Fold this protein.
Amino acid sequence: MSKHASQIVLRLLIVALPAFLASGGAGAQEGNAFTNLFKYGGTTVPPSQPAPLEEPYCPTVDVPEGGAALRNPPGATGSAGLRSQTTLGRLARECTRLQDGSIRVKVGIEGHVLLGPAGAPGRFEAPVTISLKSSGKTIVSRVRRVAVAVSPGEAQGLFSLIEDDLMVPAAMTGDYDIEVRLGGGTPQRAPAKRKPAASTATSEAPVAVPATAE
């Protein structure tokens, strides 16, 4: 050992000696200032770091059969009497595991309202249902009515929605589904005094879902 290194060790021992003597000259035990000095580089034990959380299970967004499109009016046959059709577009999801083992899910939805031959520009509402399910049972379900504007001279209006804080209990985090469908009512012309809700963009790479008419 070099002379310089020996001097450093000697100084460390001098600093730790009072605490060591105050402890009654105990042996090398956890929490002893003398032991901590050599084990952690200081006289106190550093705070423990939480263990890294396990990567959360995050299933792709499912659209049930018949849930990707809505016709207005519902009974319109062909396209002659069709006023509008609401269709889902891109879908995205983001899952975050929390300290208690539960998972917080965020879902992003894009879609559009397309005018039919009998339709006219204006403001519409697209009803969207977002659900989390496990073993066939619904954990949480929310219905949102998104305002959609179709401007004069345009054939369609786009909409987007982000639904956050959908919670999956810790006991169900290994087996659950994310479901999005159009429903909760047929899109109707909104009252003139009603303002459309501000649109929100999704924040991650979307999951493509083919749109199918009923």
